Structure prediction request, 848 residues.
Amino acid sequence: MRLHALSAGVEAPTMCFSGVIHSIFHHACNVSLESKALLTLVSSEQGNLSQGIRLGTPPKFTFLDQLRVGQPVACRGGILRISGSELSVDLRTARLWHIDLKGMRVDLRQCDTAQAWAVAWLELENHRRGNGISAMIAALPEPRQNPVTSPEIMALVERAVHTVSALIEVTRTLQVDGAITAIRPLIGLGPGLTPSGDDFIVGYLAGLWSTAGSESSRVRFLSSLGAWLSQAAAGTNAISRTYIQSAINGNVSEPMATLAQRVGHPKNMDRVREAARTALQVGNTSGADGVLGLLLGCLAWAAPSLHKQKARAIFRLFFQDRRSRQCCL
Amino acid sequence: MARATKILRNFYRDSVSLMQLSSTFAKLPGVEQASAIMASANNINLLKEAGLLGETIEAGANDLLIALQGDDDALAAAMAAAESALNQNPPPMSGNGKSSAMAPRSIEMGLGTMVGANLALISTPGEYAAAEAFKALRLGLNVMLFSDNVELKDEIALKRFAQDHDLIVMGPDCGTAIINGIPLAFANVVRRGEIGVVAASGTGLQQVTCLIDRWGKGISQAIGTGGHDLHRDVGGISMLQGLKALAADPSTSVIVLISKPPSPEVAARVLDVAGGAGKPVVVNFLGADPEGIRRPNVFAARTLEDAAAAAVALADGRRPEEGRPERSPFAMPSRLVPGQQYLRGLYSGGTFCYEASLLLKKKLGQVYSNTPVDPENRLDDVWTSRGHTVIDLGDDLFTRGRPHPMIDHRLRNERILKEAGDPEVAVILLDVVLGYGSHPDPASEMAPVIEKAKALADEAGRHLVVIGFVCGTTMDPQNLSKQEAALRDAGVILAESNAQAVRLAATVVLGPTTVGGMP
Prediction:
């Protein structure tokens, strides 16, 4: 079966590379490249990834039927082939996909941007799925509605609540060491293939890059934090590490980047809502954890007045109130 | 309350599946707590904090950890259910991906079974070769084009396309290469080492790589370019690419370039790049004036043997002039009778023949050939020698409708007997090329004929001198020592290289009884 690539992320190779199939899912598969990086192939209904290639797949296509872990893969002349599989992909048809977070300059001092942020936050609140950080912190989990909630999840929430609130504060004051201390316990933490803590970090970095603009102190903060995180990401699995590495470079998945774009430059609130819902639907917990990170990341460098008037109120409401709720579980 | 854990190494399932797995276990009777989670350090601590893990476990962030807490019996059943659920997914495949499908009938099909290939060796009749080479290049493959009779315009187009796509075309008419230690087409098994070679001459490349191996050094890469690469219109594209690649290759410390003299503008370009390679470059442009080649870090070699010796010296950190192998006097009584005055070189290697013509011209004056150094010395009838003659039996004139003389010795054997019957012939000069692609036992084909030729001369009251050299290594499949022993037994005087064999042959013809400087 010869498939054609619809698009390729800015970090995805498309001409000459070799690797092996690393992991396979229904709508995605990862290729471990010789460079040790992961390249993700996704089916057409999935969003773009900076390190991924989106394929034009037929209805009911699943990678699980086509591939096996360990199969050698090579791309020569823009044609990707998998040894022992009839599947091949013409990458020459791929259009470059890239949403530039660094150039987005999201400014929550703008009324419509602040309103868009609030719309997205509301969607997050209403999204009651999974048992990741976001679900516990933002989406009012009810034990009876969520049979998986367990002491382990309670421990997770306990840790995340402290960490996240501290992280925002040290980010606001550009304390790299403080940020490292705050992020360290989140790496590889929580449920999910890409653990909840990692998804939060990816979203948070996206939020920071979206709002950093060209302000040199913020860019320096992100660079220093990114340099540490590149090493520290060894504490999580290879798939999750790839997303973190991309986020360090200012690249995230299409649903996340689109949400950042629509919050930052809203044309109408329905489109913000739509983007938030799309982002929240990713995976079991990943989408919500990432959206939580993104929205809090966007808020971290907002003007102090905004913190006072809106953000602190939101934090108080969502952290302290939820924490007390969790303790009652 | 009992606990149970299971670790699945490098095991990935999407988040929804993991959540479903956890949820399923938690609902099982007798199971109090269940978690299917990636085993990062933070998650292991989390599970310990939650009381799901007591002991230290050996697991990494890429492993899936299933942790259960509940009744003993229930945990056993839950773990069995977990394994069953996980086994519903495709099992990991540890094989090498080999397909049992039919043998490939196209380059594209070949890539289907060997997806990591990055080079195609094309050996089709010349009229189809360019099209196949283009297919390979468009598939992102480097090309070794063994085929000859490819039009110059096609060669130019192929090489420009390759250059634009960061690929290389070795050929057309490229008979030899050694890439990453793998001999391709007609090539010898040489040890790996620090000397890289780029050659527009197949047998030239073989001679230099074999001598380097014989003198204790090895080859990093040996890149063939095809004989037309340094033509003005082609511009030395492949040689320049090869040169730049070797200059950038950390495994290569010395570079050797081999070619017949290029067009002046191409030579200037190649030498400019060689001078800036950042490592010593030995240049053997056969017949070119060494003074026109020398420049800082670029060393001129007059013969293939000199080039190999210079490269070995440079690799040892010595100046090339200091690097020539030591020679000892070599005594050989001459029993030639009056009238025996000519040399007949019967070569299977084109570059050997050309090098012989160059060296003999200086020693003997006029030397006829089907591939002469000077056009006026071209043989009118290639089937009949005159005066001093050297013949390239691998020339198209001789190979139409029959295999190359490195593979099929019949034509040369016939010619040996013919020359032996000529009362004016004093010396027959031969090359014997070993390695992949060549005849599996050339001495067995040649020795009986050489014995017969010498006997023929003896019967006529003459003494026929047969001088040769074996281009090969001890690791070649033909067994170098066995080949050399069989040839010596047949009465062949063996030199170490073509240049030495030629000088010896010339000296015999010129008549001294003692030859100096031979090994």
